[in-house]
Amino acid sequence: MDNIIDNRNIYSLNSDINTLNNDKLLLHDDNSSLLILIIDLQNFLLFESDISKILKNVIIFINAHLAYSSSNKVCCIVNDEKEGTQFLYPNDDDISEQKEYMNEDTYQEFKKIDESILNKLNKIIKNNKPSLLTRQRSNIAGSMSCGLTYIHRVLKESISLKARMLVITGESKNSNIVQSHQYIPIMNCIFTSQKLKCPIDVLKINDTNLGNKETSNSFLQQATDATNGIYLEVNEVNGMIQYLTTVFYLNTIITSTSIDTNLKINNSLDNLDKDVEDTDVLVKTHDDILVKPSTTQVDFRTSCFLTGKIVAVGFVCNVCLVVISYIPSSLKDCPCCGSTFDVKSLKKLKYWQMQQNSNKKKGFIKRANKINQSQGNQGSPDKTY
Amino acid sequence: MSNAMSSDEESIVIRKKPKQEITEDDEIINTNTRKRNLSQLSEAEVSDEDEDLELKKKKIQAQEEQERMKEEASKKKEEDEKNKKSQAQSGYAWEDKIQRPWDIVGTEDNEALQDQQLLNKIINIRDKKEAVNTTALQRGIIRSMIIIIDVSQTMGEKDYRPNRFQNVLNNTIFFIEEFFNMNPISQIGVVSLKDGLARVVSPLSGSPKSHIDALMKMKHERIEPRGFASLQNGLELARGMLMDVSAHCTKEVVLLYGSLSSTDPGNIMDTVNVLKEQEIRVAIIGLVAQVNVCEKICKITNMSDSSYYNVAMNEQHFAELLMERIKPLPLAEGSEFALIKMGFPTRIIDSTPSFCSCHSKLNRGGYYCPACNSKVCNLPIQCPSCELMLILSTHLARSYHHLVPLKNFHEVPNSEIEKGKVPKYANCYSCKREFPLLKGVNSNKLLSTMRYRCDDCKKDFCMECDDLIHTLLHNCPGCESKVNL
Q1: Res B172: pLDDT
Q2: Each residue of A191-225: pLDDT tens digit?
Q3: Which NCBIfam families does the record cross-reference, listed alphabetically (chain B) (predicted)?
Q4: What is the largest CA-CA distance in chain B?
């Protein structure tokens, strides 16, 4: 575990990418972007064999981001089991500790950032012995909050910088990691990143050996949906760089460049003879160019405080906003905050509930459904014929 | 050019004033010396000639009286000036002396002093924020608010830039956006007061867009403020608009009032008493000066709490006062707690477009009301056919921080750095910015540590992070990254 990653390989790969990018992509240097990378080590440390592969890919990704523009910035945050949130880059450690390793081909910025990330990470992993027994709370929201404050700081310091957050998370064998308390903090992070106009992307690496059925992390899924980011689940670690560069890297490029103005220039050159009104037909956002991996179904469902079932029509306490799916006959106070409800309104709701239940018993709804179905059949003959 | 000239002249006048004071002071000193001379003279003269003594004494007394008068007059002047200064400190914009940037800029010593003053100001502002109570209160999360805007002739005045009315409009538009960000399941209506009448600008609804469009229309049409404002008409209209609102909502009226008078059709106190009965709470922000009726209205409708009536001192203060109204009001004692029936629809993307029941527009995506299956295109909304409130769980999550506010961070005292408990050079926990070391220029002592500590996780944050965390994020990054339960 001492040397997780051999630096030399990375640099050679990087130089390849650099040469690839040189001729095409360095056109737009004026718009730079800040990439906040959050690695959820809490979930990673447990499949040790893969971590070096994953981090290798991640480092290439970071270097690709840096290579794209000299004014691009990176911040890398890790949340681990012992210390909580830790900054890999920028960090407070002494730079003098770093090993002297010079290669004429390497780009200074790569060396500086990669070494500080790897050194810090080596330290963390050395100190860290994963414990399966103790109950832990997931602390991804803490890292995200730190990332957001960092974004806030950097955005204030520079002009026309766009920020983006990528969360790389895995799946843990440790079932003791508690997720449920994360809802409100992650929600708060979502609202903040909406305000800072920073999309949150999530890359989730599934471990196929675990064979979990419900794999999607619904909180992070909601985060990507609300901030217009990308949620991607990957089963294979080996080709990870492919996903990173095609899905997440391209996106950073396109959002970071002024694609509108470029297209406008092109258009106006092409249509010099035509009316200027034609310029309305322009590609406006990157969404129109890139077909993002779509999140088909985002789990927005609310669960009942009492039963834990998913609620379609529920009752909300107007003081603490707790959601209940049914009203027990003995209910007088709020089960969460204890405030006593108004008797009249409670009676009304109970009466409504009674009616609903009796309707269900009578099969009223079933009949209604049947009628609906028959109507649907009547309406559809066009298709069948 | 003429402007520049006149301003120069003014500045010269201002600079002349102190000189005059000095001359007056000199006169006082001179008179004192004269007094002594005179008294010495008088003694000498008394011994020489007895006949002229009385006359001379009278003369001297007369002189002395004159001098006293002079002294008193100069003292009065001084007192007047002192009063003026104290008034200037009271903060009303129109009572301030004209400040010019080139007068403020001074020598290096002055600059250092000004730095200190600036720092003190910043710290004071933070202290004010810290003074905000963070105890969890039961608050009315589901609100319905009527904003009444004064459009009477007084709003045309230009003490607020570009004028009072435009300034109020701009601020209101910003306020509505922020309001719905923080209170997504609430409703707003807008009313204008003009020509003694009250008109509905946009009816009570939960979509910020409709209100902002209506206000933008007012702005672009360049409606000129005209006539008189009528408090009673405005409040009656607001009362009517809030009539249908169900009991579990808090009913609020925010009145932005630039007039100093009100032309009412009847007795306004009758209206106020009805408002009190119906538990409608009125908050008034005055633009000009305190008005007794407004204070009374706020007191009566807010359980004799007079903090809901405020008078703005300047533009910035007005914006601050308005933003205070974003926070939900604490529930009154004895107010109803109730369960509210709400629907939580799931989003569905259809292959064929269909009409939504809210705007009658064709679209593919949408939400189906779980009770009546009608399609709506945006949430939160009250289902147009069955009137069930339809929301997403995210909308509820928006309001959680009102219920469980984040604890305030406290400034790390200077002594901790001096004792070496805290390293002198350190970075902010969450943004990695180095804490500034602010030292007094002459004393070379630390003015402030500029670090703010969370009491729970004992992590230090910089001032900007502290601000962001408490105004926007509502998470403590330190506490959230704790591992152990």
Answers
A1: 95
A2: 999 888 888 999 888 876 666 555 667 788 888 88
A3: ssl1 (TIGR00622)
A4: 125
CA gap A189, B394 in Å, rounded: 12
CB contact A334 to B (< 8 Å): yes
Q: Note the residue count of chain A.
A: 385
Q: What is the 3-state secondary structure (H, E, C) of A156-169?
A: HHCCCEEEEEEEEE
> Tokens 């480092």 correspond to what residue?
A59
Q: Do the Cβ atoms of B241 and B269 come closer than 8 Å?
A: no
Topology annotation, domain A7-261? Rossmann fold (3.40.50)
In A, residues 175-194, which contact B (CB 8 Å cutoff)? Answer: 178, 183-185, 187-192
Q: Is the ipTM of this complex over 0.90?
A: no
Number of CB atoms found within 10 A of residue B94's CB: 8
Which position has the token pair 């000066």? B289
E runs forming strands in B242-343: 250-257, 280-286, 309-311, 339-343
Looking at residue B434, the DSSP 8-state letter turns out to be B
Q: How many helices (H) and strands (E) does chain B have?
A: 15, 17
Query: How far are the Cα atoms of A377, B37, B41, B42, B386 from residue B34, in angstroms, in the given order?
Result: 118, 5, 10, 12, 95
Global pTM reads 0.73
CA–CA separation, B28 vs B25, rounded Å?
A: 5
What tens digit of pLDDT does each residue of B113-166 get?
A: 666 777 777 777 777 776 666 666 777 788 899 999 999 999 998 888 888 999
Task: Name the residue among B339, B394, B474 with its Cβ closest to that of A316.
Answer: B339
Closest CB to A145: pick one of B398, B475, B483.
Answer: B475
Structure confidence by residue, pLDDT tens digits, B383-426: 888 888 888 888 888 888 888 888 888 888 888 888 888 888 88
Percent of chain B with pLDDT over 90: 27
Q: Does A306 touch chain B (CB under 8 A)?
A: no
Chain B residues closer than 8 Å to A143 by CB = 481
Q: Assess whether B163 and B278 both reside in one domain.
A: yes
The whole domain housing B423 covers 410-480
Domain count, chain B: 4
Is residue A302 within 8 angstroms of chain B, CB to CB?
yes
**Together in a domain, B352 and B235:** no
